[in-house]
């Protein structure tokens, strides 16, 4: 039925004082009301993933095609949850940044979990959650895109290899990744290039070092997608005496 339903807000003029034929500019359609409410419920989150590439993967463009298809499916399922981010495909590993609602991020994690349950045809190995940001101030990327990097692209790894033993911690490596992504986001704000791939071609020093990612993937303290989903789905146990929250057997101070 093509009838247009309208819901009026408080009118700027009463109906008695309104000129003949004059419409209330404050009226909105039911579609706009529904859409506005849906957008208000969406809380932006940012998920950063890393994974190794299996040796049997001869064509790395398969990864880009897989996530393009997944992005398309999620855009149809979650109409109001616009997904942005960047997928960097290195010769030996992968870095994926996704910005959207929690529901979309969970769907990406479930896709990784399902992929791991089919090792013979898995496109990734040993995926890890590098970082999760809840309600960031703004997006780093205005759309989702991917880029396949050659062996010679990116900064030299001498800086990462030269870290002192006490500095070569998981926290330091994660901060290195976040700093590089923040610099890339700032460059994208000032650049006229539409996609981050063009910016990375011109300024390869903004690419996160592959060596840093490989070091992160060797750390046992980073959660797998399955562990992250289990933590997310597990109930909270709040201790009023100590002001602490217990989730999945771990103790976190509030």
Keywords for this entry:
single chain; 254 residues; alpha+beta; five-stranded mixed beta sheet; three-stranded antiparallel beta sheet; 10 strands; 37% helix; 21% strand; disordered N terminus; disordered C terminus
Contiguous low-pLDDT stretches (5 residues minimum) are 1-16, 22-26, 31-40, 158-166, 242-254
- Compute the average pLDDT: 78
Q: What overall form do the CA principal axes indicate?
A: globular
H/E order of the elements?
EEHEHEEHEEHHHHHEEE
Q: DSSP strand (E) fraction?
A: 15-25%
The overall strand count is 10
Please state the structural category: alpha+beta
Note the gap between the termini: 52 Å
Helix content: 25-40%
Q: How many strands, what sense, and barrel or not for the largest sheet?
A: 5 strands, mixed
Helical stretch count?
A: 8
The radius of gyration computed from the alpha-carbon positions, rounded to a whole number of angstroms, is 23 Å
Which strands sit side by side, in order, in the main sheet?
6-3-5-4-7
Kindly describe this structure.
The chain is of the alpha+beta class. The chain has eight helices and ten strands. The protein has helices spanning 30-41, 61-77, 102-116, 158-161, 170-190, 196-202, 210-217, 225-233; strands spanning 6-7, 28-29, 45-52, 84-89, 93-100, 125-134, 144-148, 236-239, 244-247, 250-253. The strands form three sheets. A five-stranded mixed sheet has the order 6-3-5-4-7, sandwiched between helices. Strands 8-9-10 form a three-stranded antiparallel sheet, with no helix packed on it. The chain has a two-stranded antiparallel sheet with strand order 1-2. A hairpin with a 3-residue loop joins strand 4 (84-89) and strand 5 (93-100). The N and C termini lie far apart (52 Å). Mean pLDDT is 78; it is low at 1-16, 22-26, 31-40, 158-166 and 242-254.
């Amino acid at each position: 039925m093509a009838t247009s339903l309208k819901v009026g807000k408080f009118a700027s003029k009463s109906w008695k004082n309104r000129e003949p034929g004059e419409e209330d500019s404050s009226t909105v359609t039911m579609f706009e009301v529904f859409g506005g409410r849906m957008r208000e419920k969406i809380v932006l989150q940012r998920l950063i993933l890393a994974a190794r590439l299996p040796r049997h993967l001869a064509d790395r463009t398969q990864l880009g095609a897989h996530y393009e298809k997944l992005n398309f499916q999620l855009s149809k399922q979650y109409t109001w949850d616009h997904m942005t981010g960047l997928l960097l495909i290195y010769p030996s590993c992968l870095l994926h940044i996704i910005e959207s609602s929690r529901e979309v991020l969970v769907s990406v994690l479930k896709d990784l979990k399902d992929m791991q349950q089919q090792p013979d045809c898995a496109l990734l190995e040993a995926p890890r959650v590098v970082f999760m940001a809840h309600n960031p101030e703004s997006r780093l990327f205005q759309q989702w895109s991917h880029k396949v990097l050659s062996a010679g692209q990116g900064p030299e790894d001498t800086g990462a290899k030269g870290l002192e033993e006490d500095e070569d911690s998981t926290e330091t490596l994660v901060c290195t990744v976040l700093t590089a992504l923040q610099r890339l986001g700032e460059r994208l704000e000032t650049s006229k290039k539409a996609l981050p791939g063009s910016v990375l071609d011109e300024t390869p020093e903004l690419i996160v070092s592959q060596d840093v990612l490989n070091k992160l993937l060797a750390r046992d303290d980073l959660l797998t997608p399955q562990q992250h989903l289990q933590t997310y789905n597990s109930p909270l146990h709040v201790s009023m005496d100590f002001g602490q929250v217990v989730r999945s057997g771990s103790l976190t101070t509030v």
